[in-house]
Design goal:
This protein is mainly alpha-helical and about 110 residues long. The protein is built from five helices and no strands. Bound molecules: zinc ion. Zinc ion binds near residues 85, 87, 88, 106 and 109.
């Protein structure tokens, strides 16, 4: 995996992690106005949407799950098998990693097992 690609994927994953952490903060500290004050730019636009509807438990659980998968993949990016399919070890295209940052498999293996 090229370093530029790795950085791009890491950036995408980091952004998603940050967004999910905001959602989780909202859900867990729903009465705490301080939790949203440090956010800026495009993140605050998303927050405005979030503020209009209560964050329910199902969404929070999904967010927690996705967060742990994203952190796992971010961790993997630092290792030698970065961007490799866990099933067949073939290289996962960067486009796929950007579209589905939680994935650990190439398209072929994902279709067979999911
Ligand atoms: Zn595969």
């Amino acid at each position: 995996m090229r370093i530029a690609d790795k950085e791009l994927v890491a950036h995408t994953i980091t952004r998603r992690i940050r967004r999910l952490e905001v959602i989780l903060q909202q859900g867990e500290l729903i009465d705490d106005d301080q939790s949203t004050k440090e956010l800026q730019d495009d993140e605050s636009a998303r927050l405005d949407n979030l503020n209009q509807q209560p964050v329910d438990d199902a969404l929070l659980n999904l967010a927690r799950l996705e967060l742990s998968e994203l952190k796992y993949n971010l961790d993997r990016l630092e290792k030698e098998d970065a961007g490799e399919c866990e099933e067949c070890s073939s290289e996962i295209p960067v486009k796929r990693l950007l579209a589905v940052p939680t994935t650990r498999k190439c398209v072929n293996c994902a279709v067979e097992t999911d």
